[in-house]
Every structure is written in C-alpha cells, then in structure tokens.
C-alpha cells in the first residue's frame, strides 16, 4: 500500500496545483522527486506544513538577463538565480546579450556555461544570438543545445550585440527554419528610432523622456509587421520579446 510508505519529505495539506487539476492533499518526495500525490495523509521524515498554502510547480522563466560573464555587476548568476528561486522559478533561460562575449559562437556558449556552473541555484538553459556576422555559427550553436535564438532589429544598446537589418534577418530566419529552431526578435525600427534619436540629440535633449520620444509606437508596430512577414515568408517560427503595445 502506497500510503504506508514513509517519504523523505512530505508537503502536507496544501492546495496542490497539478496538471490534471487542483486538489487539497499531500506530496511525498524521495530523492528530490515527487513520488506520491495523495488526498490522504502521507508519512514523512520531514513534514512541511502547507495548510493555507498553494503548492505550485516550479515556474520556467524564458527571459532573464544575468549579464555574466562580462557585466556581472549588473546582476550575475548568483544573485539572479537566487532571486528566481525565491520567486518560485526553478528554471531560467538566459539571454545571449549583455554578457561578454555575447553568446554568438559555441566558444562563447561554453564560457557562459562555465560562469553558470556552480553558481546557479536553479536549472538553466541558454539562448543563442543572431547578429550581423555570425550566421555560420547558428548550426553549431543549435547543436550545442541553445533552446532558441534572439536578434535585435534596432540598436541593442550594447556595441557587440549588433542589430540585424532585413537581409541578415531573412537569411537567419531561413537558416533557423532549416535547423527547426525559432527566432525571438526585439522588434523596433532602427531607421525610425535612430532618426528620432539624432534629431532629439541635435535639440540638446538628454533627459529620460527623450528616450521614449525616440521610440514612437509606429517604430514597434512597423518592425513587428515586418518580422511577421519575413518569418512567414521564411517559414520560421517567431517570438516577439519586449512588446510594449496592446496593438502589437
Ligand atoms: Zn530582454
């Protein structure tokens, strides 16, 4: 009888959110894995009282920027993954830019893995980058295990993670389709944002509001439409990140 077993840890009396549904009950855990889910009490060496608590599966955060190696002072794997764990996130997927080098080659991917190993409190996976001059690295990055690729259609705010114009974007989408991969894009028109920025700078604007004025809604909508069109033509799956407009 399963209920006569004793588990290493029992999470007792919580509202358990499971795939099939929600129930009030008990989790039996052995070797760090859920071994039993029961509405009847379970016995355990270590019992966690979860009455008045909701017990959720670990969340997966597909979009984190820990910026290590290279810009660890912005956050880093240690503090970033601890914050994730504190918030119930058990897997993070870390973005390919802001770190140095950016994850645009397998060598850079290995550097990132070395930085994460031993520091990350949670499971992790990594994004690869599509930039101006790394298309020949997409296949090896995919083979090395990145879960998807990220590109910027406008200046990324870091010099090394170059944004892609339509030629590279379309060719990248075709290559990623052939690799059964998908592309996440930061969709803003570089032409519109750069033109606005130049004019604001010429007017001597350095204030925070100028940042927003350089990025009118049309810049985002135009880029989203263009990315969707190119992805459809290429037959590649697309994900749009950092969206800020309901119309998007
Ligand atoms: Zn981001």
UniProtKB/TrEMBL annotation:
Domain of life of the organism encoding this protein: Bacteria
Q: Which GO terms describe its biological process?
A: purine nucleobase catabolic process
Q: Any idea which UniProt keywords this protein has? A: Hydrolase, Metal-binding, Pyrimidine biosynthesis
List each copy of the Dihydroorotase catalytic domain by range: 53-244
Requisite cofactors: Zn(2+)
Q: Per the record, what is one GO cellular component?
A: cytoplasm
Tell me its EC number(s), please: 3.5.2.5
Molecular function as annotated in GO: allantoinase activity; metal ion binding
Q: Which segments does the entry list as coiled coil?
A: none
Q: What does this protein do?
A: Catalyzes the reversible cyclization of carbamoyl aspartate to dihydroorotate.
User: What's this protein's family per the entry?
Assistant: Belongs to the metallo-dependent hydrolases superfamily. DHOase family. Class I DHOase subfamily.
Name this polypeptide is given: Allantoinase
Q: Which organism is it from?
A: Candidatus Segetimicrobium genomatis
